[in-house]
Design goal:
This protein has 798 residues and is of the alpha+beta class. The chain contains 13 helices and 51 strands. Among the domains are: 179 residues, glycosyl hydrolase (family 31) (Immunoglobulin-like); 244 residues, TIM Barrel; 107 residues, Immunoglobulin-like, CATH 2.60.40.1180. It binds alpha-D-glucopyranose (GLC). Belongs to the glycosyl hydrolase 31 family.
Length: 798
């Protein structure tokens, strides 16, 4: 029985000396005396893969995480043999491999050490299952910091922590509880202004130890599989994260409505209840784009069926909701009820698509419907079948999104909460046990769901959300952080988890706003909405067994706060959509923890609460009851308080006053923030102006706005509009240069410009070097300018 394997153990084995090496294009193979081979592959000048075997040969190279379209290619690769080591030099780094024991050390081109093996690769043979427990240890330096690892519910900087990766249904998890639902074996190290990353692409149960067991050692190990990891060189965290995201893939753009507000509960039923909830949003004028049907819409929790007592005519209901701007999203779990009369069960049985135990019987376990079998989503033929099952839901009924849950996979009433280890999986033609497939089961389910929903939604875009995920899942799906609790501590956790997911390549994430388990007070709910509207995915969800969690379950003040913040999110949709575009184009995280935003400022290294939403909006939630404000760190640079428009100089911690209907929000000086009018749902209104809030700064600042048809795939054929504004502020003038790319023509024809912090009175305005009529009196009254959207240079003179 393997337990929490300690890093070092007497039975550990180590590579012995290198006896030969070969160099084959981008890969260098080092062979040791005791049958260890290190295959070192240079993917890019700053990205190296290390792959070890102890058998004398490599098994088939297969990964679910790596995106086949990732960029590779380097400018320079040179291998030289020195007396005691081999040296691999690229355009960015130097890597030395010791002849005596295969240990690696990596340097920048100036010779500064970036990362060095401590014991390096070692392993323990595993008699029970065969193969090895593979281990790696690296030397860590004082002051080194660590970030990443997906959804861990602990402080952002992981220094001093040990974490475990094993996808787990962790109902009502606690702070520091580990493992949780997601598995992202990727971390970023930061030391002396140099950042690097490690992605340990191994789907077995893995562990990372960041100077927890030994002060100056970082290590990671897995219960099986290969020591197979990627090293990313920064030196900026931006480079590490974007490179990791490039390697494991980016999503397509979601439909814009998916960035709106979503309302969920376990469960809204029958139809009249769903309609009532939807109508109340419209009555109270709180924008909402999506409503969810949790497991009770099904007939006895059988996926792809409807309870006809509750929902006699789903198609009519879905279309009536759609007429009012609501998209219907339904839950689909992996467990298929064992029921000889049930069509999905019968099909899967006939085709032999369920996972089997080692000795042949189907894997059987209890979930919501009672005893279930589970499709083997690691089999491509099963995925294809599963995708086809969505035809009726999407094409006929008109459902717009699918919610995959319980896909860790969760099994009830068993101590390990999941499949036993011996369950067999196809693993895309690399048959294996559940030990290897467990962590990617949920991702393969979401992948199959994505393909199905996409196929039947076409030419519209699909929307998928999953609970469990492994690195790379972001290519197919968004995610939420699982079954949290309505406590202040969980608000803190949600803030960390979503930031952490963002720098772990999986940015389209949110938490159950208000908490899933237990009942939030109105105050807690309000504080959670105030944070939630700044998360890429924004949904209220609750277990529903303790009262309601719609905004109107609370008092008037909370309803008003909810409306105010959801309105703000809808106004910021073009800004949010632009963030998303930067994420899919460049791999840029949508939320930036302060350390990511300014790694050179050591004050940011241990900050948890503040983050930058996109590139120019600094947000800090209120995480305590009865707060009149809070202390927070303002990163370097100049920032406008969003509520008061007062300018503050950053690089310091300060107290910020807030009322109950505010949280600290600051806008970077120089930013141009695009806004739409408030709409009750995306596409409700046609409008002729895009609002631009221009925050004056002396100096230069660039801002961009991405727009397209808000759904569909024309954007991939160049039908998008990308505006890039270069603003230059001087003592008595502001100059804005506008550059436009793309073939999409937005409906609006004008910009409505608000100046914030302009230090002079406007006397004259020129557009493309020609003076236009400027009505100073009307400007004074209205405080905005209307200008045509097609200018090249806008010149404001004081
Ligand atoms: C799980 C999910 C939760 C859902 C419930 C019922 O607990 O995490 O979001 O509401 O199952 O389907």
């Amino acid at each position: 029985m393997i337990t929490n394997t300690e890093l070092e153990y007497k039975g550990d084995l180590y590579p012995s000396k290198i006896v030969s090496y070969t160099h084959d294009v981008d890969s260098i193979y080092f062979y040791t005396d005791n049958s260890v081979i290190l295959k070192l592959t240079v993917l890019r000048d700053s990205l190296i893969r290390f792959r070890f075997t102890t058998k004398g040969y490599f098994s088939n190279d297969f990964s679910y995480a790596i995106d086949r379209s990732h960029s590779h290619g380097y400018n320079h690769l040179e291998v030289t043999e020195e007396k005691t080591y081999f040296q691999i030099t690229t355009n960015k780094i130097i890597c030395k491999i010791q002849k005596v024991d295969l240990r690696a050390s990596i340097f920048d081109l100036k010779g500064n050490i970036i990362l060095e093996d401590e014991l390096g690769f070692h392993w323990e043979e595993c008699y029970e299952f065969g193969g090895n427990i593979v281990k790696m240890s690296k030397a860590s330096r004082d002051g080194e910091c660590f970030y990443g690892l997906g959804d861990k519910a602990t402080q952002l900087n992981l220094k001093g922590k040990r974490v475990e990766n094993f996808a787990t249904d962790q109902y009502a998890f606690q702070k520091e509880q580990d493992p949780l639902y997601k598995v992202v074996p990727f971390y970023i190290g930061l030391h002396h202004k140099q950042a690097y990353g490690i992605f340990f692409d191994n789907t077995f149960r893995t562990y990372f130890d960041f100077c927890h067991e030994r002060r100056n050692v970082t290590s990671f190990w897995a219960h099986g599989g290969e020591m197979n990891y990627y090293f990313f060189y920064g030196p900026n965290m931006q480079d590490v994260v974007t490179s990791y995201t490039d390697l494991t893939g980016k999503p397509e753009l979601p439909p814009l409505w998916a960035l709106g507000y979503h309302q969920c509960k376990w469960s809204y039923y029958p139809e009249s209840n769903v309609k009532e909830v939807a109508a109340k949003f419209r009555e109270l004028q709180i924008p909402c784009d999506a409503i969810y049907l949790d497991i009770d819409y099904m007939e006895g929790f059988r996926c792809f069926t409807w309870n006809k007592d509750y929902f006699p005519d789903p198609k009519r209901m879905v279309s009536e909701l759609a007429q009012d701007g609501f998209k219907t999203i339904v839950i689909i779990d992996p467990g298929i009820k064992i029921d000889k009369e049930y069509w999905v069960y019968k099909e899967a049985l006939a085709k032999d698509y369920f996972c089997k135990r080692a000795d042949g019987p189907y894997m059987k376990g209890k979930v919501w419907p009672g005893e279930c079998n589970f499709p083997d989503f690691t089999n491509p033929e099963v995925r294809e079948w599963w995708a086809g099952l969505f035809k009726e839901l999407i094409s006929d009924v008109g459902v717009k999104g699918v919610w995959n849950d319980m896909n860790e996979p969760a099994v009830m009433e068993v101590p390990n909460k999941t499949f036993p280890n011996d369950v067999r999986h196809d693993y895309d033609g690399n048959p294996c046990s559940h030990r290897k497939a467990h962590n990617i089961y949920g991702t393969q389910m979401a992948r199959a769901t994505y393909h199905g929903v996409k196929r039947f939604s076409y030419p519209k875009r699909p929307f998928i959300i999953t609970r469990s995920a492994y690195s790379g899942a972001q290519r197919y799906t968004s995610s939420w952080t699982g079954d949290n609790i309505a406590t202040w501590e969980h608000l803190w956790i949600a803030n960390i988890q979503v930031q952490r997911m963002s720098i772990s390549g999986m940015g389209f994430t949110g938490s159950d706003i208000g908490g899933f388990a237990e009942q939030p007070t109105g105050e807690l709910y309000a504080r959670w909405i105030q944070l939630g509207v700044f998360h890429p995915f924004c949904r209220t969800h609750s277990s529903g067994d303790h009262g309601d969690q719609e905004p109107w379950a609370f008092d008037e003040e909370v309803i008003d706060i909810t409306r105010k913040f959801v309105n703000l999110r809808y106004q910021l949709l073009p800004y949010l959509y632009t963030m998303f575009w930067q994420y899919i184009e460049e791999g840029t995280p949508m939320l930036k923890p302060l350390v990511y935003f300014d790694q050179d400022d050591i004050q940011t290294h241990y900050r948890n609460d503040e983050f930058v939403f996109g590139n120019q909006i600094l947000v800090c939630p209120i995480l305590e009851p009865n707060a009149q404000g809070r202390r927070m760190y303002i990163p370097r640079g100049e920032w406008y308080n969003f509520w008061t428009n007062c300018l503050v100089k950053g690089g310091k911690e300060m107290w910020v006053d807030t009322k109950f209907d505010e949280i600290p929000v600051f806008i970077k000086a120089g930013a141009i923030i695009p806004k739409y009018p408030v709409q009750q749902y995306v596409g409700e209104k046609e409008f002729d102006e895009l609002t631009l809030d221009i925050y004056y700064k002396e100096g230069k600042e660039k801002s961009v706005v991405y727009e397209d048809g808000q759904d569909g795939y024309d954007y991939k054929k160049g039908r998008f509009s990308f505006l890039s504004f270069q603003m230059t502020g001087k003592e008595k003038e502001v100059n804005i240069q506008l550059h436009k790319e793309g073939k999409f023509d937005t409906n609006y024809t004008k910009f409505k410009i608000n100046f914030i912090g302009l230090p002079f009175d406007i006397k004259m305005i020129e557009i493309d070097n020609e003076e236009i009529v400027f009505d100073a009196k009307s400007y004074k009254e209205n405080q905005y300018l209307i200008v045509p959207k097609d200018f090249n240079v806008l010149h404001i003179i004081g």
